[in-house]
Write a structure and sequence with these properties.
By secondary structure, this protein is mainly β. Helix content is 15%, strand content 46%. It has one helix and eleven strands. Strands 1, 2, 3, 4, 5, 6, 7, 8, 9, 10 and 11 form an eleven-stranded mixed beta sheet that branches. Strand 10 and strand 11 (138-145) form a beta hairpin. The longest helix has 23 residues, at 2-24. It starts with a helix and ends in a 10-residue tail after the last strand.
Length: 155
């Protein structure tokens, strides 16, 4: 009987471990092992036909700082912006600290989409690619939410 219990416990432990690992994966994007992952990505449905914003959190589990150098999308041109003292300013790169995160949120660091090829609608998904100085690009599927959407995370 003890042999049967042991035989059943090993596959159960393996299955439990696989489920735990699956629960830790990003639903939005990952670089496949370089320590960079993305969560909470979304685009509020744009109110204009040619501009939109995007928000997400980039997590760096690696031991060295990552540098986000650009963002691209087939929906339009994408630039990175920071807002400080009520002034929005375009930036060329952003640091993601080692064992830290970079949060893109309303009123702070965010993505701006210009010259949209089409106006994304609520329920659609926009694909963006994050480019890093010393890491592989990360493709993120960004769901389009209502124009008034406020995520539980607050960004």
């Amino acid at each position: 009987m003890r042999a049967l219990a042991t035989a059943l416990a090993v596959p159960a432990a393996v299955l439990t471990g696989a489920l735990v690992l699956a629960g830790c994966s990003s639903d939005s994007g990952s670089d496949g092992g370089g320590g960079i992952s993305v969560s909470g990505a979304y685009m509020p449905q744009p109110v204009s036909d040619d501009m939109a914003a995007g928000f997400l959190t980039i997590v760096n589990d690696g031991g060295t700082k990552a540098e986000l150098t650009s963002v691209t999308s087939d929906v339009g041109e994408v630039t990175m912006h920071e807002t400080a003292d009520g002034t929005m300013e375009e930036v060329q790169n952003l640091a993601v600290p080692a064992h830290g995160q970079l949060v893109f949120k309303s009123g702070g660091t965010h993505l701006m989409f210009d010259k949209l090829t089409h106006k994304p609608e609520q329920g659609q998904t926009v694909s963006v690619e994050l480019h890093f100085a010393k890491a592989d690009p990360v493709v993120v599927k960004m769901p389009v939410k209502s124009a008034t959407y406020i995520p539980e995370t607050g960004h």
